[in-house]
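Running log. JK asked me to keep both predictions on one page so they can be read side by side. First protein, sequence followed by its tokens:
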Amino acid sequence: MRRLIPWGTRGPADSRAWFADPLVFACGLALFYGVIALAQRWLAPFVPGPEISLDPRMLPLYAGYSLLRMALAYVLSLGFALVYGYLAATRPRLERFMIPALDVLQSIPVLSFLPGVVLAMVALFPHREIGVELGSIVLIFTGQVWNLAFGFYSSVKSIPRDLEEAAYVCHFGRWQRFSRLVLPHAAIGLVWNSMMSVAGGWFFLMACEMFVLGSRDFRLPGLGSYLQTAASAGDMRHILWGLLVLVAVIVLLDLLIWRPLITWADRFKIEQVQAVTQPHAPVLELLRRSSAVAWFKRRVTGPIDARLLGWFPARTVLPAIVPTQPRGRLVRNRVVGAAFLALVAYAIFRAVLLLAQLSRADLLEIAAGTGATFVRVLIALVLGLAWTVPVGVHIGLSPRLARIAQPLAQVAASIPATALFPIVVVALARLGGGLDLAAVLLMLLGTQWYILFNVIAGAMTIPEDMKETVRVFRFRRIDRWRYLFLPAIFPHLVTGLVTAGGGAWNASIIAEYFHFGGQTLSTLGLGSSISHATDAGNFSLLLGATVAMAATVVTFNRLVWRRLYRLAEERFTLEG
């Protein structure tokens, strides 16, 4: 049975356990205080366009606000991803509708969600800050959730058949199958995709905490609004201060959350030979020594698990005659379905009326912008794929290297593109690259990490006995890639490419249109059209550009990525 090396000395495990409970209690108290402080702000009267101070002493408070928004958005994203991905992977009838819907949703940029989400939240709470706060959280949610949902869906689809058969033979109920088979199999990919989703939330934080709708200015105190205010003023000194605090927050998250989760998820790797080197996290060892955590597991999570097992009992043989649905329930379902279709038809009708306001010049701009952004996205994907596959496999195969590279990659993936835009533009201006090349590089910053994190997750799931086999038979390097590495990471690689494509299209709204030093820098593209339409309050152009972007992404997904998903499911699933 696998045992982690104790932190510190190699004496008894309880020799240093005396400070575990006070530290756990202090962290819980700090979290509780942060939630209370944010709740007090939510209930405060609404103040349009509050001033964002550039005083560095305000950065700890702003970081706390942003961190709590990110945490709430992540909890929503994780819950949505687990439910949506599981239903799409296990219900073939629903899968035909849910996956195309997910394609459409992940192709819609954050700024396209912005008008409807913010205006709806403000209308619900017109006199309180909670409206704008909820709008910001939902916008962060839209930047996190699609990657998680696609990753979990792919993990459920790639469960080995022998494990599925074992669960069937053991008469697993729904909760047993989900908690004992699905979640453990998806644990490694879920952890790495969670890191990427949170990094994506930081990436779009500036757009989610400070936004303009026509003449209305909505902003919230936080790291994103601090960086946006400094960038708009062209203040490089305060941009660097904001980036420094952002990096510090990301490093702390890595030490306190992600590294313990990576170590914990390693126990679910499918293998028959134990690895020589195993991941190690001092924080996880500390939690294992805490009596408060043990009490929580015994008194809270254990009874909840037992209650769920009672609600979803073990599978039994279905009766020969399946009872028909009561007539009253059938009529109710039809009425609800008809009402839903009526709402969809009305929404389509209103959208068509809005699109009818587009001029010929607007249509030409959308068509040319679609082609320009599509080319930039393809270039960014190719550049990202070229280096992330070899580097990601190397990191995933080496736990020691992963401990060093993982926090560095997470920091790099989390830095907002708009904070780097001045540096990139100045550098390319000296090289003669221009704004077009800057837009490609900034898309690359929003694209390559999705591929890298998924490749690392795929490489970490390679069983140790397979790696031992290629070593024993002395496979050449090219044969290792051909027969082991590429087939093993292929399902994860496809997921990374799908989410990276959506990330590149989303990053176009920042890479192609930017405010800096009182000037507006832009280039031809759909992202530029969407950002300009948002600033001007031109909802017809905003809708038209968003529809064009969604249609392009969905078409490409159906023609390319969906076929690769089927190939991964049929040929590259690990079987016993």
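And the second, directly underneath as requested:
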Amino acid sequence: MLIELKVHLPSLILSRITWSHSMTKSAFFLLLYVSSILCDHEEWAVEIKRGSQTTAEELAERHGHELIGQVATLPNIFLFRKKRDTEHGVTHPHHHESPEIHWAEKQVAQKRYKRDLVVRDPLYPQQWHLHGVQAVPNVHINVERVWNELNITGNGVTLAIVDDGIEYTHPDLAANYKAGSSFDVNFNDSDPFPQFSNDDHGTSAGGVAAARDNAACGVGSAFRAGLAGIRLLSKETRDVDEATALTYMNQLNSIYSNSWGPVDDGKRKEGPGKTASLALKTGVREGRKKLGSIFIWAAGNGRRSGDNCNYDGWANSPYTVSIAAVDYQGMQAWYSEECSMLIASAPSSGTRFSITTTDLQGSRGTSTGDCTTTFGGTSAAAPLAAGVAALILEANPALDWREVQGVLIHSSSRTNPTDPGWKQNGRGLFYNHKYGFGLIDAYEAVKTARSWRPYGARILLDPVISLPNKDIPEGSFITDTVVINDQFVVEHVQVIFEATHGRRGDLVIILEHSNTESILAEKHSDRGRDYNWTFGSVVHWGENSGGPWTLKVKDDIPGETGTLTKWTLMLYGHKL
């Protein structure tokens, strides 16, 4: 059998090589490696200042580069590639010889990790996440009532799975697949079909969200929604690649389901670069006819490593909907990260049951058949929530991106209600850093969407900056308070935290308002020096913005010392 594979070779924009089973894997990947070296052209994302009279092509030529083209649909953002004969470091765009250039960022390929979790425990009734199991019948997303009583199935809404491709020929997926909304970012063509044997992640995620009814592997939570595949994770990605994926066909794709991110080891603070950050912001401003794209994000599987979704710049963005995972008992899954940016939780793998859904056909995937019973992690929780988002948008297509978050917040229910982490915020909403606002309830979400009262324009308070310059003590908190006079309803909160410290993972950081605490950081294994990181919180959703906001910081491990030099409070919301 011959498998045709796309490879970017220097002599062709897009060439193909053929791999036969007679070729050893080592020889094949050596060929891939050599080809990548040969075509290793330095590339830069460049933002040209608005109103510049110089064209992008002229600027590229001036700096010894060639213009590759505009990045996605981002205004004034272009990709330059250094010419082979350009002397290194002399005319690169980051030197800013040109007043027309706002910023330039070198593109570096990075490994992004799929947030799946293979569970080998015995599995029982299939698709318990949709309807429960006999022992604990209430731990599910309550979606059957949406289909049967409300006749809402995701019809007319297209969701995109940003992952390692989708096997759109799978009988469970074929009827819902939208070729015109799909793209292969990794190999720059319109076909996101998974080519490698480990490219099974997106197909399973797609099945959880939108597998068709009356098929072999069960159904998705929105089984009549359109399903697009955006292939991104089959190789290392650059910031511009991630930006392209998250803005692709954003007038046709309403929801982007993302089950990936930086490695979940608790040892880093990492997130999108400038271009992908702008893509998220552009998506919520311009996507879906200016109502805003819905970005669903897997919160991460690094709980046992002390990781926290607030250390992930994707999961803690105000523009994304971070989803945690609970097991079949409604308990925090052993891998599921907690943080103050969790919107809600969804069922996934854990101590006993995993998720049954689509797999690559035949023996190419995790199973020997066309279905898998071992899908899990927050990788499964996110597309399950994405399907619910499709149900919400079918019920009320006029909701903007913040209102979709609000619907999930106000309709989710307390799971594991005896857990001591449940606290009421100043608005009376229950929040838990393990579960967000609770377990997604699709039926309540659709009812809430149908009766939703619009938020109105988004308010952005001017950043409030404090320069305390206080030493951080070991074992006890220092505090610093700012007072806000403006009064509006809080949605998102961000804190840009700056401190000097020899081992930043030693610090505990808490934000307090209206007797509500957002735990921004806990003691963990990040040995990096110093802090300059943006934390986020939705814990204060619905509170009145006015009054004191207090930052509390302590050093939880003796040894290294540090100083809180600066913090910036940013509040977003809507009128009272």
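Observation for JK regarding the second prediction: The first helix runs from residue 25 to 38.
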